[in-house]
Amino acid sequence: MVRQRVRIRFSKQGDMTLVGHRDMMRAFQRAFRRARLPLSFSEGFHPHLRMTFPMALAVGTESTDEVMELELVDCELSSEEIASRSARFTPAGLNILSAELLPEGTKKARVAATCYHVSIDTDHLPAAREGIERLMAASSWPIVRPGKEKEIDVRKAIDTLSLEGDQLRVRVIKMDKGPEIGPRDIMQALDLKEDAIGAGRWVRDRVELTSEKP
């Protein structure tokens, strides 16, 4: 039995943004079974599909570029066939963009950074600009998440943060220690409320892996 890992890029948009991570995993499992892929399962009393996601996406956030890895056995399908067959069975809003057959010995996907953008309402653009200037000029910017007690330093994880027109764009570095920094943390650090967001939702438009160039 020869195992083959496949790295899949996909998007999560529309109503699927309101679906949690576990339900999304089940949707993929159903799609792969219906596509009749030669799936690999773990051993034991409760075998599970060998499928991993290096970074979960928060509910309510769209994404045009997510990553997952799937393990197949004795696979004779091309990457194009895997992608096209699977795409026929994914629900609306969950779209497979590409599949890549990984060479033997390739390390599992590890996230290096993530990129996000969101539209800011016109009335809140001045406050957003001021917040960006303060935040990026600081060497440290601790916040306390609602309902929590421990401080987290948002500034250390922010690589770039800017306004392009009404688009707030941020590149967040994946830290070795501590929680993942996401859109809500960025908004809190900028002292912006939810009503500062214009049309649309936060969008994660890139998941960069450690094996890739920025």
Please render the helix and strand layout as text:
Blueprint: E1 3-12, H1 21-34, E2 51-52, E3 62-73, H2 79-87, E4 94-101, E5 111-119, H3 125-137, E6 142-144, E7 151-153, E8 158-164, E9 167-173, H4 183-189, E10 203-209
Parallel strand pairs: 3-10
Antiparallel strand pairs: 1-3, 1-4, 2-3, 5-9, 5-10, 6-7, 8-9
What is the CATH architecture assignment of the largest domain?
A: 2-Layer Sandwich
Strand tally? 10
Strand content: 25-35%
CATH topology of the largest domain: Alpha-Beta Plaits
Mean pLDDT: 93
Q: Which residues sit in consecutive blocks of at least 5 with pLDDT less than 50? A: none
Q: What count of structural domains?
A: 2
- Secondary structure class reads alpha+beta
- Class of the largest domain, according to the CATH hierarchy? Alpha Beta
Please, how many helices? 4
- SSE run: EHEEHEEHEEEEHE
- The H-level CATH homologous superfamily of the largest domain, spelled out, is Pseudouridine synthase I, catalytic domain, N-terminal subdomain
Rg from alpha-carbon coordinates: 19 Å
The share of residues in helices is 10-25%
**Alpha carbon gap, first and last residue:** 36 Å
